[in-house]
Specification:
Layout: E1 6-11, H1 15-18, H2 24-31, E2 37-42, H3 48-56, E3 62-67, H4 69-82, E4 87-92, H5 98-102, H6 109-118, E5 120-128, E6 133-134, E7 137-141, H7 146-149, H8 152-158, H9 160-169, E8 177-183, E9 186-198, E10 202-203, E11 206-207, E12 219-225, H10 229-242, E13 253-258, E14 260-265, E15 271-273, E16 276-278, E17 282-295
Parallel strand pairs: 1-2, 1-3, 3-4
Antiparallel strand pairs: 5-6, 5-17, 7-9, 7-15, 8-9, 8-14, 9-12, 10-11, 12-13, 14-17, 15-16
Length: 296
């Protein structure tokens, strides 16, 4: 796309703790400095951002997700399912903003708009279950229910601290999750306390892998086996405080780069996909799409 000129901002009405409306005029004014068409539409239903992205992806050169990772998940799904290929950007006003952090997009409104005006882009890998698309994380186990059990009201009032409060309630509650993992040349059957696939540097607001690239055609797979309680606890603590490099040598931790993976969920424990609840018993996931996204 040589000279993109039309841009659509799809915004979550709860963005910026429900105060997004007063910032819409400055968003439109500043973006109009570069783009001849700048429209703003709000997602009014639970799946509204995906519906808008699907409907209008072919009519704009750039689609901007204004909200958190959940809104971005919907926008990406709508764009890909539409069959069109507009550039996707972010104005990050959610709780964790993992994808925007990976792409270097600042939470400050004017600095985020600056990134959209500069229009530096990168290819960004997407994983699919054959029906829907995963932009950055699939996880289950220790504390993953926090993202979908923490109320919207708490998140608006307390931001990331709402997650911390919910997490403290289950800090030492390790569930034993029997899983069978099938990779390209490997089959792993074990009990786990945590399992995650992620794309990028951040998940849950934590920097997990500063070297991870978003355009290398794979997701990072991490699984922590159920072992002695103290050992399991410290593996989890090291992973989220110091990242993947801190647990690479642990015999309790499995780390792989994967393009395709099949998971048999013998425990029927729910997963989270991009922060939203997701349930399955057996599912294959494949990295098979790339979209163009705005980076800093």
């Amino acid at each position: 796309m040589n000279n993109p000129s039309s841009l659509l901002v799809i915004y979550n009405p709860q963005a910026m703790r429900g105060k997004i409306d007063k910032f819409l005029p400055i968003i439109k004014q500043r973006l109009s400095l570069r783009y001849s068409t700048v429209d703003l539409m709000t997602s009014l239903s639970d799946n509204g951002a995906e519906e808008l992205a699907y409907k209008f992806a072919s009519k704009y050169d750039i689609i901007i997700s204004c909200g958190g990772d959940g809104t971005l998940h919907q926008v990406i799904n709508g764009v890909i399912k539409s069959g069109s290929d507009p550039i996707v950007g972010i104005l990050p006003f959610g709780t964790c903003n993992d994808v925007s952090r990976t792409l270097g997009i600042h939470r400050d409104l004017n600095l985020a708009i600056d990134s959209i005006l500069r229009l530096n882009t990168t290819k960004y890998d997407i994983m699919t279950d054959g029906k829907d698309y995963i932009s950055y994380t699939l996880a289950t186990g220790f504390l993953t229910n926090v993202s979908f059990e923490t109320s919207s009201t708490k998140k608006r009032r307390l931001g990331r601290f709402a997650y911390v409060m919910s997490a403290l309630k289950g800090l030492f509650n390790f569930k034993s999750l029997p899983m069978t993992i099938k990779l390209k040349d490997e089959r792993i059957h074990d009990k786990f306390i945590y399992l995650m696939l992620f794309n990028g540097k951040y998940a849950g607001g934590f920097k997990l892998d500063s070297s991870e690239q978003v355009d290398n055609s794979h997701f990072k797979f991490i699984a922590i086996k159920k072992g002695k309680r103290l050992k399991s606890y410290f593996d989890m603590l090291n992973l989220f405080l110091y990242g993947v490099k801190a647990v690479r040598k642990s015999k309790n931790v499995i780390i792989r780069d994967v393009k395709s993976i099949e998971i048999e969920n013998h425990s029927n424990e729910p997963f989270t996909v991009d922060g939203e609840k997701y349930a399955f018993l057996k599912q294959k996931f494949v990295v098979n799409k790339q979209i163009t996204m705005i980076k800093n």
